[in-house]
Amino acid sequence: MITFEGAAKLYPDGTVAVDALDLTVETGQTTVFVGPSGSGKTTSLRMINRMVEPTGGAVLIDGQDVRLRDPAALRRSIGYVIQQAGLFPHRTVRDNIATVPLLLGWGRARARARAAELMELVGLEPSQARRYPHQLSGGQQQRVGVARALAADPPILLMDEPFSAVDPVVRASLQDELLRLQEELHKTVVFVTHDIDEAVRLGDRIAVFRPGGRLAQYDSPERLLAAPRDAFVESFVGYDRGVRRLSFFPARELSLREDVVFGDDTAAGAAAASMRGEPWALVVTGDHVPLGWAGAGQLARVPADTALGSLDLAPYGHTFAVDTDSLRAALDAAVLSPAGRAVGVDAAGRVVGVVSQEDLGTALWSVTE
Amino acid sequence: MIAEAWDWAARVVEWGVANWSRPGEPDRGVLPRLTEHMRLSYLSILIGLVLALPLGLACVRWKPLYPPVLTGVNVLYAVPSIALFFLMLPYTGFSDWTAVVPLALYTLVVLLPNVVDGLRQVPDHVRQAAVAMGFGPLRRLVYVETPVAVPVIIAGLRVASVATISMVSVASLVGLGGLGQLILSDGFRRQFDAPIVVGIVLTVLLAFVTDAVLVLAQRLLTPWAREDGGRRRRRRAAGPAGADTAAAPTAPRAAETAEAAVRRPVRTGPGTGHTAEEGRSWTS
Amino acid sequence: MDILIELFAWFADPARWTGGGGVPARMGEHVYYSLLGLLLSAVVAVPLGLFTGHTGRGGFLTTSLANFARALPTIGVLFLIVLAAGIGLVPVLCALVALAVPPILVNTHEGVRGVEPRLRDAAFGMGMRGHQVLLRLELPVAVPLILIGMRTAAVQVVATATIAAYVGVGGLGRYIVDGQARQDLTMMLGGSVLVVLLAVLTTLLFAGLRRLLVAPGLRTGAVAGR
Hints:
The structure holds 3 protein chains of 3 kinds. Chain A is an alpha/beta fold. Chain A contains 15 helices and 16 strands. Chain A folds into 2 domains: 2-248, Rossmann fold; 251-367, CBS-domain, CATH 3.10.580. In chain A, 34% of the residues lie in helices and 23% in strands. The longest helix of chain A is centred in the middle third of the chain and has 18 residues, at 168-185. Chain B is mainly alpha-helical. Chain B has a domain at 29-222: MetI-like (MetI-like fold), CATH 1.10.3720. Helix content of chain B is 74%, strand content 0%. Chain B has helices spanning 2-18, 30-61, 66-78, 81-92, 97-120, 124-132, 137-168, 179-188, 193-221, 226-231, 240-244, 255-263, 273-283. Chain B is elongated and about 70 Å long. By secondary structure, chain C is mainly α. Chain C is elongated, with a radius of gyration of 21 Å. Chain C has a domain at 24-173: MetI-like (MetI-like fold), CATH 1.10.3720.10. In chain C, 76% of the residues lie in helices and 0% in strands. The N and C termini of chain C lie far apart (54 Å). Chains B and C meet through α3, α4, α7, α8 and α9 of B and α3, α4, α5, α7 and α9 of C. Chain A: Its EC number is 7.6.2.9. Chain A: It comes from Nocardiopsis sinuspersici.
């Protein structure tokens, strides 16, 4: 547990970097410090490993003031990942990762063996061990940076905008990787970013900092999106926070309609009769694989005995997985479907049912409280 | 002790004043030696510059030309001017050329990479924009590339001029004039320290004044670079020196780093010149 | 052309290659003075540059001193020291050190200062102490620049050691001084050619040293974060 007790950083020129921060970072969770530049989030992070000394208050790790510990020894017990990784250009990937173990006096062979383990853990090829940082892509360098921070198995990991210098696709994969690692390792992670999406994606708890080094709100991502405390947090969280908040609600609570789903051998007339005013029918194969949408008007125009499978169907668009996806995915599927309806499928891709716009709307209203 | 030092300094100054010009020997006073020194160094620097500019331009326009030229330049760089003075002697005798040819070559060697890198420093997007606005190659050279190159070229010129002014003294050993002759014949041969000190002080002063003039020229020619140059002076001098710093960005390949390079070197002293002058040899 | 033929004959003379006045002996003296001067300079300049670069203190003083030293006319310094201390190896070495310290000092200082702040941040952040940051990060990253400074210094020292003959010690400069005294142009040229040769060899030697001492990750254009 990391505790900030009125921690403050005031520079001699009068700049307030951090203004009396009170905050507790829970052990084994990912806590994200997010805010615009100049809000003191990085300064706060760097107080934890004494890269910045507070001018007021204190930072405690498990109840002990960090200032009571030798800075070098303290830092060796805390993993540290920075923007663009900061790998040593004159050392191979392997020796970069082995830096802290070597500082701790592990001996070269053991340190290198540990480096090999970590390379596997963060998804690097063993063949890259003897490469130099400049021979790696930005994403790979950042993986090495994470591996280097984890090398001595520290309980705490500080990450200062680690993914901000890579492109969005690579960033997303690094974020996934971090989530996977965290599931496995349960480190106490403090993560600094200016990207609220990244914060929501990675954080168990999010601390929003405002300019002037003040804590604006400290909450779970759901609470942050649902109830921003003031106008600053609301604008920082973004105009589409409502939609993003849907990510936290499972789609399985939606009521699905099966009465508008028909096999491809059903006759058009029979289908039209059982639709009860619904404008669209979903046509599926015998195995419940979706084929496409048939409109009510279309069914009225063709001879009543025409099989649905022989009609010219509108594409069914995206589907959502009923058991694993969120409400946001269901909404997305509905928006992208020509029929305006979302198709719910099971893990094998078979149609479970269709969510009508009314039902989706009801579900959305219910979560908005 | 302190009084002795003052006495000594006073003696040196007195000698300098008394020998400022000698009516009996119009070529041998302090002033004529100083003007000789200026003539030899400025002539060398000027010729070096005049040769470096078109050669540098040619190397930028015809890229394959640069690697062999750079190799030649690097070989020349390793040749000490002192030895060149003696090697020139049979051909040029006691004319100015014995000193000017090697020193002009030295200036050329220091300047050429700066000219080339300076001209190449224009960020790609700026060059593209100029092309898109309808600038032809000549206009681009005059309005876009040259202004960007000026600070880099002047940085090289500063390195070359300080070194040249100091090296001209050595030319006295082959019998040429300049302040070195004051040091050698009035001082060393007569075992008399005052002329040596006067010679050293005037050489250093000449170097510093020349350097100051070049700094001033750069400020006048590139007003946009002033603020920046001061702030980022820690970064290394012209072009490739920075590129050779292990931790610095690579040679201005990507537009981004090229831009950084433009902002970077601008204000460089002859001190950082050690790296400037050296860096490029290393790229070969 | 006659000069070339005479020069060739001068080198071809067997007497040229033996005894205290022979090329090997003179070359040996020259290399000895140069090496001594360079080593002394490195011993002074490298630690000083590492210190100023690492602490960021005295950087301005270092650069200003180096600028000043660069503008000093070498023969002035040499002759002044000889007048004060008498003829011998010591004044020669003093002059060589005065010449070689600035480039080594400035390049060492700049090499260490030039280490990217984020690398230094990472090093401290991982728990390195000051001396560990200096020895494990700053020094290896600065090696290429330090070597460049050493090479500049070495070439200048080799060239300037020639002047040592004017103050009564040996080296290749003897051929030049004696040649001048005897009006023997061939001898003077022979000496100059040998100095040029030694200077070029020195440059080559440093190219080799670079291969040996610079970590592969730092060679030509190798940059983290590219």
